[in-house]
């Protein structure tokens, strides 16, 4: 049997504020009595994992991944009993905050991930995990992560062979936090390297199309298909699936053998509840710039799930995520088709073969209901794809959805023998469990898929997908088309002296320290975060340190700062000669670029002009840069530059070296979610002095918005932004003609008829 398991991929570029659902802030990085616990740690601080025979495991993996593939294993599991108040160190800060810190060391590990078998912390408690050089930080986990009925918390890997667990708790809390680490997983196959190397992704699967770059793919279903990492060692693909209530319950469909690596041996429900509770789910891991080696987002995750219906003989597992995906993940709940004809052609498959970016497959023929070659599954329970029209699957794709022409799920991948031979498939079949075969399977509702996905027993056989953002779509703004078919659009600014090529993070004169990209949006919308495309940087010996990301408003450039967050842009240095991580803080070395996402906590409303910037410091952030368009390729400049003296300049007016360009910063907004438009009021906010052609905006302090002048025929003649009380010189067209001035601000709508 060729089983498919998708290995989860973790980013070599990480930053402080993201990962599985976490709640901001950063660790104390403190130590008891001023003693360093990071490199020269006190005796007994680190809990050492025992040595094991890696070569033996690699030999087992080689056999396992040929023929009967029991999953892509990358980690060795240690059963542990590491507990707060028993291991590590405990101390108290001057304000009374109680801190627990413990280190875990597993010699030679590329990364370490842990499972908290007991996790229950009060409001105010904060848990972080980070490596010894502080380049990879996970957290904060708070009381809002107390979502598992079993009080467990699986945590994604942290780079390196040493990690620190830090928990802080205020004096006055409802109860004392309970934390126990029951599993430690030692990564011996370097999932970070395998995930990040473009050779692994590009060359291994030349017959597979990047799903995000496939114009024929349903973009909503792209948002529904996710990566899963199970029990800290095994990966698969799953799909968020809708139910007849359209209530955004995060149901997840995958294959049973993803949870039970030996499906010939049946397991009870407690086994599946335990396994599903260890799952970390990754959203939106896909190609960010088509045709490039740019890595996708690896920070949008949720932790834990609950098994609801497990049908071993059909290979169908329905789970429910323990955490609701945040809005900025932009989740979509795919629809389903349980009619016995398999749905209309063509059929498509979205999957993550062996931890790569999301791929797509296409089959133009008719799937045939058949008996799979896997004897432990029921007869006549699988759809057979005899030959892929385009694409293939591979080890790591198990559980991935099969969609009909209407974009509805009809099944999920169990296994098969297809693979890439150059740019073509090897013309071998794959087998997907037929969803309809397990729909009402089981003696009672508790193991019945229908009871969960059709809870009101409406009896429908086809259900459309559900988009939570249909009325207020989540939109990713961009001032340029960053795509490999426009080869001069996405570039990293070269390092240079005296201004030449010195913008956007590399300035040997250290005369600039902040760079912003300008955007404009109507109507008022909610700003939730921003994607930032960051190139590799060569030529420096300095270590990149955290930079600050700011949000500004302003009509004539960045003026009022409304939000600031910390962003830690670092790579993990890897030596191919030593096949190991370096044990020092990493540089932005010569690797492929990365797509990253910065969350702006709180509610930020934007209308009209706003700006997103990054602020660097010298010399610590000397290596940081953001991709930009080639100078002069754009007709309109959208980049701004700030001198260390505090002056902002539009990049095309920068003294001594003006350039027209855009930065690869892409805000995400929920359009129209800024609130209802204020009623149209003919208030005296607009005054026009015809004798000197001056238009006065008598706005309140802090009020901002746009002014649009229309002809009486409705043609827009002029549009500009205002902030507070301002006046503008209007050059009229034909003297004596009439016009309408419309003012839209965050407080009102006003309209006034004027005579030029």
Question: Can you offer a commentary on this structure?
Answer:
- The protein has 756 residues and is mainly beta.
- It has 4 domains: 19-190, Spermadhesin, CUB domain (Jelly Rolls), CATH 2.60.120; 195-463, Beta Barrel (Thrombin, subunit H); 474-670, Jelly Rolls (Sandwich), CATH 2.60.120; 686-755, Immunoglobulin-like, CATH 2.60.40.3080.
- The chain contains 6 helices and 48 strands.
- β7 (126-131) and β8 (137-141) form a beta hairpin.
- The radius of gyration is 28 Å and the shape is globular.
- Mean pLDDT is 77; it is low at 1-24, 32-43, 65-70, 194-200, 492-508, 538-544, 569-590 and 674-683.
CA gyration radius, whole angstroms: 28 Å
Q: How would you name the CATH homologous superfamily of the largest domain?
A: Trypsin-like serine proteases
- Beta-strand percent range: 35-45%
Q: Helix content range of the residues, please?
A: under 10%
Q: Quote the CATH topology of the largest domain.
A: Thrombin, subunit H
Provide mean pLDDT, rounded: 77
Structural class, by secondary structure, is: mainly beta
CATH domain class name of the largest domain = Mainly Beta
Query: For the largest beta sheet, what order do the strands appear in spatially?
Result: 1-18-17-14-15-16-20-19
- Mind describing the biggest β-sheet? 8 strands, mixed
Instruction: Label the CATH architecture of the largest domain.
Output: Beta Barrel
């Amino acid at each position: 049997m060729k089983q498919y398991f998708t290995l989860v991929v973790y980013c070599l570029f990480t930053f402080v504020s993201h990962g599985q659902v976490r709640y901001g802030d950063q660790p104390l990085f403190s130590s008891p009595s001023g003693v360093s616990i990071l490199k020269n740690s006190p005796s007994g601080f680190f809990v050492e994992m025992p040595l094991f025979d890696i070569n033996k495991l690699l030999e087992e993996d080689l056999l396992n991944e040929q023929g009967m593939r029991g999953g892509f294993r990358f980690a060795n599991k240690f059963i542990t009993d590491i507990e707060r108040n028993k291991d590590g160190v405990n101390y108290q800060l001057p304000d009374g905050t109680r801190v627990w810190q413990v280190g875990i060391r597993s010699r030679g590990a590329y990364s370490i991930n842990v499972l908290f078998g007991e996790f229950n912390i009060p409001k105010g408690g904060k848990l972080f995990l980070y490596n010894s050089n502080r380049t990879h930080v996970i957290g904060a986990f708070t009381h809002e992560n107390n979502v598992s009925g079993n009080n467990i918390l699986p945590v994604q890997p942290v780079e390196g062979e040493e990690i620190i667990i830090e928990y802080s708790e205020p004096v006055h809390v409802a109860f004392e936090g309970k934390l126990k680490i029951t599993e430690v997983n030692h990564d011996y196959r370097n999932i970070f390297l395998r995930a990040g190397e473009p050779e692994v992704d590009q060359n291994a699967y030349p017959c597979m199309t990047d799903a995000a770059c496939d114009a024929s793919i349903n973009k909503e279903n792209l948002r529904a298909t996710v990566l899963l990492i199970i029990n800290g060692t095994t990966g698969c693909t799953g799909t968020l699936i809708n139910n007849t209530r359209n209530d955004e319950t995060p149901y997840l469909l995958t294959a049973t053998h993803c949870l039970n690596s030996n499906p010939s041996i049946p397991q009870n429900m407690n086994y599946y509840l335990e396994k599903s509770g260890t799952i970390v789910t990754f959203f939106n891991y896909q190609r960010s710039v088509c045709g490039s080696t740019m890595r996708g987002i690896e920070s949008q995750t949720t932790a834990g799930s609950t098994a609801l219906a497990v049908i071993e003989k059909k290979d169908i597992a329905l789970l429910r995520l323990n955490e609701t995906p945040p809005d900025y993940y932009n989740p979509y709940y795919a629809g389903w088709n349980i009619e016995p004809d398999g749905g209309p052609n063509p059929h498509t498959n979205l999957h993550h073969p062996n931890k790569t970016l999301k791929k797509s497959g296409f089959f133009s023929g008719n799937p045939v209901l058949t008996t799979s070659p896997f004897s432990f599954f029921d007869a006549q329970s699988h759809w057979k794809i005899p030959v892929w029209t385009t694409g293939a699957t591979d080890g790591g794709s198990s559980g991935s959805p099969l969609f009909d022409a209407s974009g509805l799920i009809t099944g999920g991948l169990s296994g098969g023998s297809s693979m890439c031979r150059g740019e073509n498939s090897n013309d071998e079949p794959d087998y997907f469990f037929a969803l309809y075969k397990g729909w009402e399977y089981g003696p009672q509702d508790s193991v019945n898929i229908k009871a969960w996905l059709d809870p009101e027993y409406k009896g429908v056989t086809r259900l459309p997908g559900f988009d939570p953002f249909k009325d207020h779509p989540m939109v990713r703004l961009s001032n340029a088309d960053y795509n490999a078919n426009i080869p001069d659009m996405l570039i990293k600014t070269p390092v240079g002296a005296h201004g030449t090529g010195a913008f956007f993070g590399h300035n040997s004169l250290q005369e600039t320290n902040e760079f912003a990209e300008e955007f404009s949006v109507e109507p008022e919308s909610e700003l939730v975060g921003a994607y930032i495309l960051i190139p590799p940087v060569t030529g420096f010996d300095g270590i990149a340190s955290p930079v600050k990301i700011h949000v500004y408003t302003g009509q004539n450039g960045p003026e009022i700062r409304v939000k600031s967050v910390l962003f830690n842009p670092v790579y993990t240095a890897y030596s191919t000669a030593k096949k190991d991580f370096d044990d020092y803080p990493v540089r932005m070395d010569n690797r492929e670029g990365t797509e990253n996402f910065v969350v702006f906590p709180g509610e930020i409303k934007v209308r009209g002009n706003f700006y997103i910037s990054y602020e660097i410091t010298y010399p610590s952030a000397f290596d940081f840069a953001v991709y930009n368009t080639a100078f002069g390729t754009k007709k309109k400049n959208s980049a701004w530059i700030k001198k260390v003296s505090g002056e902002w300049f539009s990049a095309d007016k920068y003294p001594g070296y003006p350039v027209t360009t855009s930065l690869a910063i892409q805000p995400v907004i929920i359009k129209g979610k800024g609130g209802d438009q204020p009623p149209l009021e003919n208030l005296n906010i607009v005054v026009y002095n015809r004798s000197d052609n001056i238009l006065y905006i008598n706005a309140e302090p802090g009020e901002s918005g746009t002014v649009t002048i229309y002809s009486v025929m409705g043609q827009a003649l002029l549009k500009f932004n205002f902030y507070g009380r301002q006046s503008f010189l209007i050059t009229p067209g034909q003297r004596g003609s009439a016009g309408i001035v419309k003012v839209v601000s965050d407080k009102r709508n006003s309209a006034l008829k004027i005579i030029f």
